[in-house]
Design a protein that fits this description.
Elements (H helix, E strand, L loop, with lengths): L2 H14 L5 H13 L3 H6 L7 H15 L4 H5 L1 E4 L2 E4 L12 H14 L5 E7 L5 H10 L8 E8 L2 H13 L5 E4 L14 E6 L30 H9 L5 E6 L5 H10 L2 E7 L2 E6 L1
Parallel strand pairs: 3-4, 3-6, 4-5, 6-7
Antiparallel strand pairs: 1-2, 7-9, 8-9
Bound molecules: S-adenosylmethionine.
S-adenosylmethionine binds next to helix 7.
């Protein structure tokens, strides 16, 4: 069978299982199995697949047809233009989370030379995609008088292992640490300004999630009855700490999340799509 025939066959299979990105996913799986770039695949529609590659492609497409996330099948996901290793122990980085990086960068621009030392703390780091991207992007800024330190905290040891691999691959220095937001407290130096990046589990308990998300770790997704339990814990723990907090949650949760922040003396200073930025008053 040629690449072109295989692409068409697998696209039909995935479409019949309501996979919206059927063609793209077939392409990604073929390029993963052949260990070639997508451009290589697209330039060679008549290339004949051997029986081993074909069988591997069919196995992965069948798994995709049962709505396993494409990122788990090919072991990586793009975030902010870079590839990150993912596994079933980590949440798959979402495009909506890229806005968190955008809003962080505009805040860092505003800090220009006003503070000497900044800690960027990614709480619930998962694959590490947010804090690693932050470190890479901030390194492009001309901020000679400000020293940045980066931290990635998570309750999951296997996720932290993946995050460390990602940091190594992208050549950034991040301090990853096992941390349970329910039991632990933050160990912060008084002299530094802190920016918390928090894409914590925020889906309400009875919310219907899509089939792909059912393959992801439950503890990375659900945040109690209204979804905001982890944010209550976070704001409670950083009450009165001079800091910025950038959160992700569903737009219908934003009013309630602002109330939680306000109760802990944080005010909303910016917001876009799923992301809100809070500053200590
Ligand atoms: C929504 S995922 C976000 C992952 C990653 N930051 C991203 O944006 O792709 C939430 C993360 O919070 C972590 N988490 C869940 N419960 C936690 C807890 N009690 N303390 C610390 N981290 C927790 C999960 O392991 C998961 O990695």
């Amino acid at each position: 069978m040629t690449i072109n025939e295989c692409l068409k066959q697998q696209k039909v299979l995935l479409e019949s299982h309501n996979i919206p990105t059927a063609y793209l996913d077939s392409e990604l799986i073929i390029s993963y199995v052949l260990n070639k770039e997508r451009s290589w695949i697209l330039a060679r529609p008549e290339y004949r697949l051997n029986s081993k590659d074909l069988s591997n492609i069919q196995t992965l497409c069948n798994r995709r047809a049962s709505h396993e996330p494409i990122a788990y099948l090919i072991g990586k996901q793009e975030f902010y233009g870079r590839d990150f290793i993912v596994s079933p122990d980590t949440l798959t980085p979402r495009p909506e989370t890229e806005t968190m990086v955008e809003l962080l960068l505009s805040q860092v621009e505003n800090l220009r030379s006003k503070v000497e030392s900044v800690n960027i703390i990614d709480v619930g780091t998962g694959s590490g995609c947010i804090v690693i991207t932050a470190a890479l992007e901030i390194s492009n800024f001309e901020l000679r008088n400000t020293r940045f330190e980066y931290f990635g905290l998570d309750i999951s040891t296997p996720a932290l292992k993946i995050a460390c691999e990602n940091a190594k691959r992208h050549k950034v220095d991040i301090k990853f640490k096992k941390f349970d937001l329910i039991k632990n407290t933050f160990d912060l130096q008084e002299s530094s300004f802190n920016i918390f990046l928090a894409n914590l589990p925020y889906v309400p308990k009875n919310f219907n999630i899509n089939l792909a998300a059912t393959h992801e770790p439950n503890f990375a997704i659900f945040g109690g009855d209204d979804g905001l339990d982890y944010y209550r814990l976070l704001f409670d723990k950083i009450h009165k700490i001079n800091s910025l907090v950038i959160t992700e949650s569903l737009p219908f949760q934003h009013t309630e999340l602002s109330k939680i922040a306000r109760k802990n003396e944080f005010k909303l200073i910016n917001s876009s799509d799923f992301i809100q930025v809070f500053s200590s008053k």
